[in-house]
């Protein structure tokens, strides 16, 4: 929609009011609407004229006709008003990229809210502030984050700033100081994949110091947002057939009764967020014809403390519920525990608007939803006051009765309030416990949650668990055992504890409860029992079992030291400059693929994905889909064939499945409609029938049973050096083991998208999220049958990539291009996160069996490994499927005899691909597992065996590389100097463990080696000098957050002798530089692209040499050269050549010492401290390089500890870990408590560009120590020498099982 379509009226400035006409808005609604597409009806009821929807946006009044179907605030901002500072990523309230500020009344605070969940109709009479608005009044927040190196790819940055702005402004309003833990909590709903959070926290904590008055700079002024607040003059309540916003309970009941079916809504977070994961359970429910917005009913928002109860209105938000419990902690011993537990529910953005009643009704409709809120209410014996919608009669129900109404509960009754009895007053807090075990601390649903209430009075005990079965499990037998207790002292009885545990085991004996979950429930009960013991009765070694250290954890802290890694003579190279686009990113002004201007006649597309993993396609029926609103076309494999397109995106992978499905989520075709939401809705209505459905091959075991492997020649699948078998036969110690390493979704915040625009003469311009424009161009030409002269691919930047946009962007780009070619119109295809995860694969999983041998001197004499890599259904596009684990399987260790055999499993799963540090991550984990096992068998500290067998200068790798320079010793020594002697550290840990029965700590110290390859890498650059003396660079590489452009610009400025600010970098396009060039990846792009730019600058300097005289400025010299018609455009090139020392150009080295803590009762783990040292040579930009180390390490923590990719046979081979509800990248809480990074000083790299080294991928290998620190803690818990290997990811259930806790043996009072 062009700007002319929006009229602005008011004070003559044209900026204070935005009015949208009804006719215009109906058109917009058709393009933006997210309501489910349905076939057109022949007749419809007369529609009353909608009320006007009015709210304040960035200080301007917005007025528009009330939409008749849901439009999210994010879509309205982006698609209608083109305010693209609000980013779309997960679209389900789980990532925080879309965070905006919302004020509901003139006197209320601005709250952080997910714009993707917020129905625009719920913004009536409210105020909304986006990144664009923050730029107007509090730009210093955005600038601070940018200048603090807190923005890498930048896609999450506007949301981060909004969350921090809410914290600062609200605390300034109440004149409250802010703690570092407040900062952590404020961004707990914002995911960052790039930075590792540490620079974000450091920046925001400095702002907090300012806010708290500890520094004399800018203090947050609450008046900054005063101009943005909502008006005190309210518009009339909204009302039409689909949406009503009553102001009284009676009006709400009448509105619900008037149209059937109708439901009440408050925050609207459950309608498009969590609920979609449980939609199969509620398939019989009709779609509500009317939504009744109850957030304007004061009666439903009341909080009252009475003599006998705490009354909480049904529409009270989870945030306000938490605040009420904190305010009234003296009224009940349980309130503090419940309030703390609520902070682990959802995110600050969701808690700000989600209501208590909404959560209860969501749980009633979807019993599989493990609601912590309902568990709190059940355990507190709360009751609900409800009104029967049909009769209008008010009555009281228990929470259990309300939940038992099931999926139609919200259509039967309107909840008015909840009553929480104050029966626990006067008792100790230990008599109440609520807890959960989750895959991640914040914003993660419970694996198991439980509440144990022991009131010690007239009321009986209450013990309930969630996550065990559908709904909640009440443990009656256990309650009966504890019913006789009259005081906490009664609990100090071993016989009573044993009887309670036996009863609980009986309560949990259902076949529906898994063994892991049953053990976890028993552990939670044991913790609750210990907490309830009287003061002084708890054995000291059980103190951490009752209250683990994580409960009292301080805010994390960290440091970066890059002293000695810069060269002042090379400025502006080697200086800690901020990324060039950092301030654009934090302010929301940076343009990503979906933000690019889109032609008004453009169309939108959505993919149709398969719902089987191994079946034949019987038929594809679009008869319903093609009759939906806005539908334009559908194209599948048969249409490609009819039009002469080639159905192959590389590696034998079809663009659209033709005859047989190879994996669940495989694209079958593409739907084109007038809006993205309508395209998605139409795609969901395409009916696909299957035949010859077979059991899918999903796992390594499945592949082995079916002998399903890719053909790989022995030369590419085998390493054989020396005689490993003979060496093992004569070894003093031989250890064998098996390691299984899972996949890892890249989780780039910007999902895959592509826009294809046909042009004159058969030309096609494609903008897409790619790391390799040349590769995308080649694939497009192949599919379309066009010359590369007719196809141009461009990309300005990508919002994260990590290898996931090298080849896996190709199917998306080709699908959009095919639709555009067929229609002759622009077509945009932007995948939603779930489709992205279902269709495009992840890091390649590995499984290895190893045998390692030590001689009497404890030298590693041999390593034999059989390793399998799981590729998926197809090879990885045009890149093939290398067994790249062979590159890194030697890690940092000098071993004489090797025998490694590899094979590549072909499965019915999406094609996997490169992911940050491919090959080296699995290789490192495999050899470190073997070394760790061998050390324990030899009775050595693992770090001692590692040191003894490390690579040194002149060592030779299994691939014949001579390590002419090796800095492992320097890194190790620097690490010991920083982190302390490992023996002393172990002594402290052993002391801690001796005093803690179930909470154990472990230590790991390990070196790291990572090889960097230049051979064949081809980078191009065009540098143009303007008449004003400024340089313009166009290069073949892609800025993905790694700081490429600032390094390139610094090299250009230093080479030409100009200021860094006088260098501009344009977007990458195959039309200028990148045709035929290498893609961005392998960590070497920044240095190689910089070399290409330097090459171009040297050419320009040679041309300018006659004009560069002492009398002339640089600008005057340029003008003189132009007068002589000198060409001031120069192309530079870097082409990597073979290295005489081996295939790698150079090696990156480092070392890490990590201390971890394991809670053996729950299996949850955390990193207590992480000290990293890494050799970066003479850094091209130490701030950028340090940020890469922090981000890479935290990404490794996610891979090792919280992120799981899982395909389920019982669900037709589907990936069951899709979306932010199931897939859990780290949040700020998962950072090490202490996180220190040191760049090795005085270590110039003679083999690198300007003596530098790459930093993007090597730091992930340092993360391996986290896994083995956790294993060390598990060993301490087990107390035996029985060998075991720790799989990846080390999830709580796995860690709990390996800790070998037996409740009958171990759960005691001493």
From TrEMBL:
The record's free-text note on cofactor binding: Binds 2 [2Fe-2S] clusters. Binds 1 Mo-molybdopterin (Mo-MPT) cofactor per subunit.
UniProt GO MF annotations: 2 iron, 2 sulfur cluster binding; FAD binding; iron ion binding; oxidoreductase activity
Family: Belongs to the xanthine dehydrogenase family.
The protein's name: Xanthine dehydrogenase
Species: Pycnococcus provasolii
Residues binding [2Fe-2S] cluster 2, per UniProt: 153, 156, 192, 194
Alphabetized Gene3D superfamilies for the sequence: 3.10.20.30, 3.30.465.10, [2Fe-2S]-binding domain, Aldehyde oxidase/xanthine dehydrogenase, a/b hammerhead, Aldehyde oxidase/xanthine dehydrogenase, molybdopterin binding domain, CO dehydrogenase flavoprotein, C-terminal domain
Cofactor: [2Fe-2S] cluster; Mo-molybdopterin; FAD
Residues bound to Mo-molybdopterin: 771, 916, 1082
Keyword Ubl conjugation among record annotations: no
Coiled coil stretches, renumbered: none
Domain FAD-binding PCMH-type intervals: 236-425
SMART domains for the chain: Ald_Xan_dh_C
UniProt keyword annotations, A-Z: 2Fe-2S, FAD, Flavoprotein, Iron, Iron-sulfur, Metal-binding, Molybdenum, Oxidoreductase
Residues binding FAD: 414, 436
UniProt: [2Fe-2S] cluster 1 binding residues: 90, 95, 98, 116
Cross-referenced PANTHER family: XANTHINE DEHYDROGENASE
Domain 2Fe-2S ferredoxin-type span(s) in chain numbering: 51-134
Entry annotation: catalytic residues: 1257
């Amino acid at each position: 929609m062009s700007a002319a379509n929006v009229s602005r009226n008011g004070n003559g400035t044209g900026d204070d009011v935005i009015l949208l006409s009804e006719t215009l808005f109906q058109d917009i609604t058709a393009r933006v609407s997210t309501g489910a597409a349905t076939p057109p009806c022949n007749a419809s009821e007369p529609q009353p004229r909608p009320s006007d929807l009015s709210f304040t946006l960035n200080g301007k009044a917005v007025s528009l006709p009330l939409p008749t179907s849901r439009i999210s605030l994010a879509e309205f901002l982006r698609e209608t008003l083109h305010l693209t500072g609000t980013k779309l990523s997960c679209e389900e309230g789980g990532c925080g990229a879309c965070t905006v500020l919302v004020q509901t009344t003139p006197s209320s605070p601005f709250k952080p809210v997910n714009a993707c969940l917020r129905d625009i109709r719920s913004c009536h009479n409210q105020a909304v502030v986006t990144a664009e608005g923050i730029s107007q009044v509090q730009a210093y927040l955005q600038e601070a984050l940018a200048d603090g190196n807190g923005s890498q790819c930048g896609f999450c940055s506007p949301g981060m700033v909004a969350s921090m702005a809410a914290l600062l402004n609200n605390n300034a309003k109440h004149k409250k100081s802010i703690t570092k833990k407040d900062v952590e909590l404020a961004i707990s709903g914002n995911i960052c994949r790039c930075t590792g959070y540490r620079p974000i926290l450091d920046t925001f904590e400095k702002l907090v110091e300012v806010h708290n008055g500890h520094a004399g700079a800018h203090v947050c002024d609450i008046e900054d947002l005063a101009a943005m607040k909502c008006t005190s003059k309210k518009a009339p309540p909204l009302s039409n057939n689909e949406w009503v916003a009553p102001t009284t309970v009676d009006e709400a009941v009448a509105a619900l009764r008037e149209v059937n079916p109708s439901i009440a809504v408050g925050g609207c977070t459950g309608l498009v967020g969590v609920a979609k994961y449980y939609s199969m359970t509620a398939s019989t429910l009709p779609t509500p014809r009317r939504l009744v917005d109850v957030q304007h009913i004061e009666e439903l928002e009341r909080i009252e403390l009475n003599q006998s109860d705490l009354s909480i209105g049904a529409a009270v938000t989870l945030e306000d519920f938490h605040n009420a419990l904190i305010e009234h902690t003296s009224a009940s011993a349980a309130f503090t525990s419940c309030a703390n537990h609520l902070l682990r529910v959802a995110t600050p953005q969701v808690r700000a608007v989600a209501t208590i009643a909404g959560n209860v009704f969501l749980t009633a409709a979807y019993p599989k939803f493990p609601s912590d809120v309902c568990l709190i209410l059940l355990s507190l014996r709360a009751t609900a006051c409800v009104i029967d919608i049909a009769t209008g009669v008010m009555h009281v129900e228990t929470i259990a009765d309300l939940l038992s109404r099931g999926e139609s509960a919200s259509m039967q009754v309107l909840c008015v309030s909840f009553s929480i009895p104050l029966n626990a007053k006067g008792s100790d807090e230990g008599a109440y416990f609520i807890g959960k075990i989750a895959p991640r601390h914040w914003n993660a649903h419970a694996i198991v949650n439980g509440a144990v209430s022991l009131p010690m009075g007239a009321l009986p005990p209450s013990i309930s668990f969630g996550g065990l079965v559908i709904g909640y499990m009440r443990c009656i037998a256990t309650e009966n055992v504890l019913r006789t207790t009259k005081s906490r002292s009664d609990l100090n009885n071993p016989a009573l504890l044993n009887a309670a545990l036996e009863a609980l085991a009986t309560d949990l004996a259902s076949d529906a409860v898994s063994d892991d979950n049953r053990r976890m429930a028993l552990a939670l009960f044991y913790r609750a029992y210990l907490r309830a013991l009287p003061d002084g009765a708890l054995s000291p070694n059980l103190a951490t079992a009752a209250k683990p250290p994580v409960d009292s954890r301080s805010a994390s802290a960290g440091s970066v030291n890059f002293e000695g890694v810069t060269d002042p003579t090379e400025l502006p190279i080697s200086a800690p400059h901020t990324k060039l686009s950092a301030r654009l990113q934090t302010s929301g002004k940076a343009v990503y693929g979906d933000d690019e201007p889109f032609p008004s006649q453009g169309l939108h597309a959505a993919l149709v994905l398969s719902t089987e993993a191994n079946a034949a396609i019987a038929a594809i029926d679009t008869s319903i889909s093609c009759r939906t609103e806005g539908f334009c076309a559908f194209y599948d494999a048969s249409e490609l064939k009819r039009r002469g397109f080639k159905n192959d995106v590389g590696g034998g992978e079809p663009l659209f499945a033709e005859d047989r499905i190879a994996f669940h989520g495989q694209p079958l075709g593409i739907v084109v409609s007038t809006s993205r939401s309508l395209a998605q809705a139409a795609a969901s209505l395409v009916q696909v029938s299957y035949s010859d459905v077979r059991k899918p091959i999903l796992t390594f075991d499945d592949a082995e049973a079916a002998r399903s492997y890719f053909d790989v020649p022995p030369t590419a699948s085998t390493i054989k050096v020396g005689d490993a078998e003979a060496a093992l036969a004569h070894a003093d110690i031989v250890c064998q083991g098996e390691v299984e390493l899972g996949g890892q979704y890249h989780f780039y915040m910007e999902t895959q998208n592509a826009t294809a625009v046909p042009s004159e003469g058969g030309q096609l311009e494609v903008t897409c999220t790619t790391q390799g424009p040349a590769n995308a161009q080649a694939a497009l030409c192949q599919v379309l049958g066009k010359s590369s002269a007719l196809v141009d691919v461009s990309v300005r930047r990508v919002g994260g990539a990590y290898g996931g946009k090298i080849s896996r962007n190709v199917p998306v780009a080709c699908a959009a291009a095919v639709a555009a070619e067929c229609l002759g119109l622009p077509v945009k295809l932007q995948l939603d996160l779930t489709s992205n995860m279902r269709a495009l694969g992840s890091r390649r999983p590995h499984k290895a069996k190893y045998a390692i041998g030590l001689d009497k001197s404890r030298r590693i004499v041999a390593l034999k490994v059989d390793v399998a890599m799981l590729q998926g259904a197809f090879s990885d596009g045009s890149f093939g499927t290398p067994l790249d684990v062979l590159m890194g399987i030697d890690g940092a260790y000098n071993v004489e005899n090797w025998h490694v055999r590899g094979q590549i499993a072909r499965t019915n799963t999406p094609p996997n691909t490169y992911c940050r540090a491919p090959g080296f991550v699995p290789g490192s984990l495999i050899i470190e597992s073997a070394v760790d096992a061998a050390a324990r068998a030899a009775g050595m500290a693992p770090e001692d065996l590692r040191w003894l067998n490390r690579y040194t200068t002149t060592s030779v790798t299994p691939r014949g590389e001579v390590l002419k320079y090796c800095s492992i010793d320097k890194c190790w020594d620097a690490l010991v100097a920083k982190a302390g002697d490992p023996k002393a550290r172990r002594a402290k840990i052993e002391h801690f463990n001796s005093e803690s029965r179930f909470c154990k700590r472990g230590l790991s110290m390990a070196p790291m080696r990572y090889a960097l390859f230049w051979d064949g890498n081809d980078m191009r650059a065009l540098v143009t000098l303007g008449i004003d003396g400024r340089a313009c660079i166009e290069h073949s590489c892609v800025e993905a957050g790694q700081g490429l452009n600032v390094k390139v610009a610094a090299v250009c400025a230093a080479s030409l002798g100009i200021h860094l600010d006088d260098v501009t970098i344009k977007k990458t396009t195959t039309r200028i530089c990148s045709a035929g060039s290498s893609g961005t990846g392998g960590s070497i792009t920044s240095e190689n692209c910089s070399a290409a730019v330097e090459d171009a600058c040297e050419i320009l300097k040679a041309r300018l040499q006659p004009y560069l005289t002492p009398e002339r400025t640089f600008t005057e010299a340029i003008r003189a050269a132009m007068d002589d018609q000198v060409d001031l455009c120069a192309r530079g090139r870097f082409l990597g050549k073979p290295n005489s020392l081996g295939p790698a150009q150079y090696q990156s080295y480092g070392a890490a010492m990590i201390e971890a803590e394991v809670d053996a009762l729950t299996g949850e783990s955390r990193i207590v401290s992480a000290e990293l040292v890494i050799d970066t040579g003479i850094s091209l930009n130490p701030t950028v390089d340090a940020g890469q180390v922090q981000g890479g390490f935290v990404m490794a923590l996610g891979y090792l500890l919280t992120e799981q990719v899982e395909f389920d046979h019982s669900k037709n081979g589907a990936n069951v870990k899709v979306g932010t509800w199931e897939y859990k990248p780290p949040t700020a809480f998962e950072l090490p408590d202490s996180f220190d990074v040191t760049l090795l000083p005085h270590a110039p790299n003679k083999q690198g560009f300007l003596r530098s080294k790459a930093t993007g991928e090597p730091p992930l290998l340092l993360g391996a120590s986290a896994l083995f620190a956790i294993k060390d803690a598990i060993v301490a818990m087990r107390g035996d020498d029985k060998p075991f290997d720790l799989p990846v990811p080390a999830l709580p259930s796995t860690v709990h099982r390996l800790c070998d806790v037996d409740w009958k043996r171990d759960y005691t009072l001493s």
